[in-house]
Amino acid sequence: MSCSVGVAQFAIKELVCEFLVKHPGVELVQQVTNQSVDLVSSGIDIAIRAHMEALPDSSIIQRRLANVSWHLFASPEYLARTGTPESPDDLLKRQSLKVGWQPVTGHWSLENRDGLKTAIPFNPQLCSDDMTTLKQAAAKGLGIVSMPAYACRDELHEGSLVRILPEWVAGKAH
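Above: the chain's sequence. Below: its structure in token form.
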């Protein structure tokens, strides 16, 4: 099985253990990487990946397991220092953190419940394909980050991160 670091850390870690408990005769080899993997030549039977855009046509069978909305998060300390954004345009004046490492500049594609869309450009202070690093940076007050809510579950419960602009979605993966 192959999956991204974020999927392994936040979405399926409990499922992997539950599966192995239910099926003790199964041997599972998990490859965790954010790089593209040639499933056929690598001998990988299943890959679990999140994609913002549709995958290219392929002879590989693809199934959608879930639709996952991404949201904007920041620490209460950061918001106390800079103010809580009340509209997407308020993000233009804020420090940002970005999932991924290419390209360095980016934009948040936001959509509200009424279907209104806007793109907010940003130059992130930190880019990383490790969501744990980005969550820690956001919790330390270094800026606003966009990621799936399941990746921030513990931080939201603890109060070290809060969702901002809750009426807006910052992307959808499937």
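The chain has a mean pLDDT of 88.
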